[in-house]
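wait is this the right file?? whatever heres the structure
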């Protein structure tokens, strides 16, 4: 995905797209760390061990349930009817569309409903879900948008990057094609635009909270993939 042109606006009067440009610029080093981390490098090469991808896909299915709830709460907080529709549809897609992607891998790996239900969230997944839900309940709409945006945007950027360098017969092609696809690109562009609209009416104090939320969610994206690569679990 092409990121917005870089900018340095830090207040709501920075013009269209100023928050997203600034947020991406501030977190560019974190995105680069995500892009080159072993999980994504090996996924692109098609050499990622199946047990690590299996760990990831199970945890991602857990995560999407919480993500869908956070999106639903964003729909409830949206100030305009179009925003209600946008976030409600995004919640539906998180549960229905992306779960269909997981379902294919679940069948391939022999993961049934009982196995999934019996597999707890890892510390990284639990942390990320709890952070989004806490933000959804406690923060205003614009801060919630900023917390939700990295999951959309970073996945698209990583998906595009992996698509460009993926091995021809990659066993994870279905995952790559989903996040590098045009349909997901449309959803990401809409989320960026919604966040920038919300930022346009935000106070300087709210903008600062938006930037903290975006940075925190970006860090949690890294933690999620790193946790899957290390097959991390609760120590007790």
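ok assuming it is, sequence goes like this
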């Amino acid at each position: 995905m092409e990121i917005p042109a870089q900018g340095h606006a830090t207040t709501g009067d920075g013009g269209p797209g100023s928050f997203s440009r600034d947020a991406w610029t501030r977190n560019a080093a974190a995105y680069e760390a995500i892009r080159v981390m072993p999980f994504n490098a090996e996924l692109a090469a098609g050499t990622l061990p199946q047990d690590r991808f299996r760990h990831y896909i199970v945890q991602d299915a857990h995560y999407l349930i919480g993500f869908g709830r956070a999106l639903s709460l964003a729909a409830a907080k949206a100030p305009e009817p179009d925003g209600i529709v946008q976030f409600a549809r995004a919640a539906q897609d998180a549960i229905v569309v992306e779960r269909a992607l997981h379902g294919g891998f679940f069948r391939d790996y022999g993961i049934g409903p009982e196995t999934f239900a019996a597999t707890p969230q890892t510390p990284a997944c639990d942390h990320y879900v709890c952070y989004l839900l806490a933000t959804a309940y406690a923060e205003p709409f614009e801060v919630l948008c900023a917390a939700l945006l990295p999951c959309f945007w970073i996945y698209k950027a990583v998906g595009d990057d992996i698509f460009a360098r993926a091995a021809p017969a990659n066993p994870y092609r279905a995952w790559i094609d989903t996040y590098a696809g045009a349909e997901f690109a449309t959803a990401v562009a809409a989320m960026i635009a919604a966040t920038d609209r919300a930022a346009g009416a935000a106070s300087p104090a709210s903008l600062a909270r938006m930037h903290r939320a975006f940075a925190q969610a970006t860090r949690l994206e890294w933690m999620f993939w790193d946790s899957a690569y290390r097959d991390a679990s609760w120590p007790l």
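Residues 55 and 228 are 6 Å apart (CA to CA). so i think its the right one actually
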